[in-house]
Amino acid sequence: MLKVENISKNYGKVKAVDHLSFTCDNGEIFGLLGENGAGKTTTFRMIMGLLETKEGKITLNGEKIDYTKTDKIGFVTEERSLLTKLTVEEQIQFYGALKNMQDKRIDEAITYWLKRFQIEEYRTRKIKELSKGNQQKIQFICAVMNHPKLLILDEPFTGLDPLNVKMLKEAIYDLKKEGCSIIFSSHQMEYIEEFCEKLVILVHGKAILNGYLNEIKKEYGIQKIEIIGDVSKEEIEKIKGVREVIVKNNKLVVQIENETVVEKVFEKIKMNKILKFEAMEPTLNEIFIQKVGALR
Question: What are phi and psi for residue 104, nearest 5 degrees?
Fold first, then answer.
């Protein structure tokens, strides 16, 4: 389990991370979110032991993270961190050596992962000759080849098409099943909703939301209704508690003040021909915009 307790970090007078706490259990995928400059990268570097915390502590399975523990941590960075003049095989061998893996294990990992990601023919190709998507696969392999106890994923699907995204997703879920603690960061909120039960949203280094996603959504409550059917937009706009009605493709999206308005809308249109009537919790993207936008 990764445990982050009350950590802070300053750069001069700027507080990059401000008393941040969270836990990521074994076999859990945890979301760390925020705008650019919110403190995510600084947090990652402190977890990796690359930066000292100003206060607080970070432990992995009860032990302080130092250079004797970093080979148990995998990190897929948003920016490419590959040596482009090396071949795929040489690149993975290099990272394997850094992780204190024996040559036999490294070779087994290369064979397994290249086959799994359907890039066996690129084994002797130079990194610079690969597409961005295949470079991202190699970066992922370098991070997970030794089955880490902690994996940090920062925008892991950059440059990947849907089929390759599916491959990486399956690999991530397999690592989760092995008991790996996974920190997941992305600006694509649909991935966070798919993967993460718990999350933190940072603004200027401070957690403004911290907890289980389902509980956060319940707190915000039902905020909209989607309707498909023979319904008048103007008729719904007259209902007290309806904030806005948006026509989107073949459906009406009704923004409401609170959950009590759902019944009012339903009573108004129930005699009409209705194909869909769904009261919906806000998406994580909507919560993020609402919460972060209010603090700008």
Answer: -65, -45
Q: At what angle do helices 132-144 and 88-98 cross, to 10 degrees?
A: 30
Q: How far apart are CA 225 and CA 222, in angstroms?
A: 8
Which CATH number is 222-280 given? Answer: 3.30.70
Averaged over successive runs of 10 residues, the pLDDT of the chain (296 residues) comes to: 95 92 96 93 92 91 86 88 94 94 96 97 96 94 96 92 95 96 94 94 94 90 92 92 92 92 93 93 89 76
Q: Which helix (H) or strand (E) holds 75?
A: strand 73-76
Q: Which two tokens stand for residue 107?
A: 């070779």
Q: CA 92, CA 122: separation in Å to the nearest integer?
A: 12
The tokens of 214 are what? Answer: 């389902």
Range(s) within the chain of domains with CATH label 3.30.70: 222-280
Domain at 2-213, CATH homologous superfamily:
P-loop containing nucleotide triphosphate hydrolases (3.40.50.300)
Q: What pTM does this model have? A: 0.87
